[in-house]
Amino acid sequence: MDTVAMHISNGIVDPATSAVFAAIALAGMIVCVLRGRRDLDDRLAPMAGLVAAFIFAVQMLNFPVLPGVSGHLLGGALAAMLVGPWVGALCVTIVLIVQALVFADGGVSAIGLNVTNMALIGTFLTYGVLALLLKVLPRTATGVAVTGFVAAVVSVVAGSLGFVLQYAIGGQVDGISLGGAAGAMVGVHALIGVGEGLITAATVLAVAKVRPDLVYALRGKRLLPSTPKSTVESAA
Amino acid sequence: MTNKPKVKLFAFLIGGLLVAFVLAGVVSSFASSDPDGLDSVSREGCTFDADDEITGGECMAQAAGEHEVGGPLADYGIAGFDNEFVSTGLSGVLGVVITFAVGGGLFWLMRRRKSVKE
Hints:
Chain A: This is Cobalt/nickel transport system permease protein. The complex is a heterodimer of chains A (about 240) and B (about 120). With about 240 residues, chain A is an all-alpha fold. Helix content of chain A is about 65%, strand content about 5%. In chain A, strand 1 (about 65) and strand 2 form a beta hairpin. Chain B is mainly alpha-helical and about 120 residues long. Chain B is about 45% helix and about 5% strand. In chain B, strand 1 (about 45-50) and strand 2 form a beta hairpin. In chain B, helix 1 runs antiparallel to helix 3 (about 85-110). Chains A and B meet through helix 1, helix 2, strand 1, strand 2 and helix 4 of A and helix 1, helix 2 and helix 3 of B.
């Protein structure tokens, strides 16, 4: 069987635990819909659709991280930076639902587990991180890139720990060392986080240069020029 | 009112979608086919044969069931297509279209119906 499984398959975590996380994911999504509506206007709505489509595309691009092991973008930090945490979590959720229902990637019964790890943990934890970093760092290209990178690393490692927690509660195979799994997950996802960080930083910078108003985390402000001398900005 | 953006929203969206099409349609074929982080950790402890079936040991992946839906685009390919480049690329492009249609459609229905200009 030549399956391309990128997310948690069905059967890995028991049905009761999967159901609990499905309820958590659903509750999270309802909150995101209610709060996200305030952010969604004629400009953010199509942008959010594009962010979802872009995350779907980049998730297909597995890059090598160790011999025999690859990684791919999860997208939580990218979504949070571009369209905010509420709409961002919905973007990642839409990607995960399309992947589970159309591409047989991630079990349908495991959808709540995957949404919790990648959409909820991935976006919200990192939105806190990046909101903080953007206050401390200058609003220059470097500052925004560093923010995106750090937020992405944190989001990927935290999401991988979400899986370890779920497996500790409802893992279906006895005799798996949880400590070993946690160490392996954090180790490999720290490496994946570097890739995620580079992609996130590059993408956010590209958008910020063309349309800074479409970067939610900048809150309508432009990037500052990195050299203070060149503040002459044409017609700014 | 802030100054006019350099690139119109419509042009930005078209450009972004084109990038997504190229990534999912072309670059995807050059992606690593090794198991990803989660997959490799869940395979730890088991041995696999050439067909990637578990032959022994104990690992998280041994509890994995068949996918509940499957479908013609399962595993990012198009069922019945021999050419892997075309199969992967086409399924990727379809995925971008579906995700943009579903996501953009839902977000458009959810949006505030007030004018943006304040």
